[in-house]
Write a structure and sequence with these properties.
Largest sheet: none
Shape: rod-shaped
Distance between the termini: 73 Å
Strand content: under 5%
Number of helices: 2
Helix content: 55-70%
Number of strands: 0
Keywords: Membrane, Transmembrane, Transmembrane helix
């Protein structure tokens, strides 16, 4: 390695922090969709 070689952090390269917000949005959205679809299937089965 040469002495003038530069090393950058992930935050410097992407220009953003790595917080994992997108992961949580996807997880919560998936859970809400599963609950909504289950309700659409279970409620008519119980009342019909």
């Amino acid at each position: 390695m040469s002495a003038d070689e530069r090393h950058y952090s992930a935050e410097q390269v992407t220009g953003a922090r790595q917080e994992g917000v997108v992961r949580w949005v996807l997880v919560i959205s998936l859970l809400l969709i599963v609950l909504a679809m289950s309700a659409m299937w279970i409620i008519p089965a119980l009342t019909g």
